[in-house]
Amino acid sequence: MCLTSGATDVLSYLTLGHVFTSSMTGVTALLIIALAEAKRPTAVRAGISIASYLAGGALAALVRPPKHAPDSARRSVRRLLSVEAVLLATYCLIAANAPQGAMGGLRDVLIVLSAMTMGIQSVAARQTHERGITTVVLNTTMTGIVVALTERCSGRRTQPLSAHFGLKLLAIMGYATGALVVAGTLMNHWFAADLVPLAATCAALSLYLRPSWA
Question: Could you give the CA distance from residue 64 to residue 83 in angstroms, rounded to a whole number?
């Protein structure tokens, strides 16, 4: 899921008019800057991204099973990742028939689809119950890594670093890998980069479809 997020941030920034559809902190900053500088097109794109992300979160809240349902967390992740994959597949179909550097209304549609998938994924990630690890905003995860390493190196933490610490490192590595793959792919294969978030989401979904996956 972190790989999907990293790929989506780079993809949206480089192909959808310098706007983020995963990092809402970044896109909120872009919105404020655009408003201050009276750059209406940028402000509109940023506003669409934020609104679509929130719409995705709202959709996820409606789609996921009730918390009291049997195996609700796992079922929620499966269902939400399935919806996310459908939206990403729709994104790829539209992008495949769009000219490079799509402008206007078509670009806005792609922003809506991309940001909605990230809103859905943010809710799905919360169902994994891995505290301190997020797949969309990595500030908390990075802070946890720094604190754990500092306490360990200074002697304030005597016990060894936990497996949870390893998951935090994997989250950062996943995000960076997704961002790197898309950035590199865009240099040579424009449409292939659009497939990276979809492929990563399908991979995550396949893990949750395994009977033994907790």
Answer: 10
**CA–CA separation, 4 vs 41, rounded Å?**
26
What is the distance between the alpha carbons of residues 135 and 203, in angstroms, rounded to a whole number? 15
**Token pair for 84:** 């996310």
Give the pLDDT of residue 100.
62
- Paired tokens of 121: 């994924």
Kindly report the number of other CB atoms within 10 A of residue 122's CB atom.
22
Predicted TM-score (pTM) of the model is: 0.85
The 3-state secondary structure of 149-168, one letter per residue = HHHHHHCCCCCCCCHHHHHH
159, two tokens: 């016990």
* Spatial distance between the Cα atoms of 7 and 198, rounded to a whole number of angstroms: 10
Decide: 83 and 91 in contact? Cβ < 8 Å.
no
- 81-98 confidence digits (pLDDT tens): 999 999 999 999 998 887
Maximal C-alpha separation, the chain: 58
User: In which region does residue 19 sit, left (phi positive, over 0), alpha (psi from -120 to 50) or beta (all else)?
Assistant: beta
